Amino acid sequence: MSYECPICREALVLEQRQWCCQQHHCFDVAKEGYVNLLPVNKKNSLTPGDNQQMMAARRLFLQAGFYQPLSDRINTLAVTLHLDKPDILDIGCGEGYYSQRLQQATDGKLQGMDISKTAVRYAAKRYPQLQFCVASAFDMPFAADSFDLMLKIFAPVAESELRRICRPGGYYLSVTAGPKHHYALKQIIYAEPREHPLQSGQLEGFILQHQERLQWQLQTPPGELSSSFLQMTPYAWKFSNEQKQNLTQQGVSCELDFFIELFQRQA
Asked: What Pfam families does the database record attribute to this sequence (predicted)?
């Protein structure tokens, strides 16, 4: 997988331990194997994306297998597309849990991308057989028509970028929150909790091929795994200290509801 320069959009070429373009913009390959292609002027904070604490919590929780049914379903859908050694992009790959399992299932060439340098550093170190970069999903450092399959789990992304980098006839797998996702947590936080609205199923330049909801009841044991789960949810900062302590000591029981959509790029 090659890159485009995030500054001038020319092709980047790997020279020893640097990706460089003809305009002499160069980006070092870190010792873990990833490259940072997020220009300073495109950061929305000093350290965008998940911080060390959030990433560690997510890593511990995912490695315990609590979200494996989602990973398995994604992989099954990808395999049924019968793509021959596809070029795959995992948008918002985090620490690489879904990336690594998807690559194994499809035997594809997988590129992981996330705005969090902390997460990408861990992913590259943990899964050296995959390729990772730090970049923004609103200005991706890839040439047009680069990917056969793109995966996005909860990450925000620019639809125009999806159209640009997906090959004609290629696929886009999107995972968002279903109506009941984490509803029990909302009941603790809000006086009048609301369900997540479902998306319309429309994406310009793509044809919707499949929609489904994947649901099950999560039950975490008391202690560290419950604490890790709470830290990786979007509600982590809304709980009071007492609520966090009670949920950590008792374990968490809540609904998981994922809305999965498969789109195909129009030729």
From this structure: Methyltransf_25, Zn_ribbon_RlmA
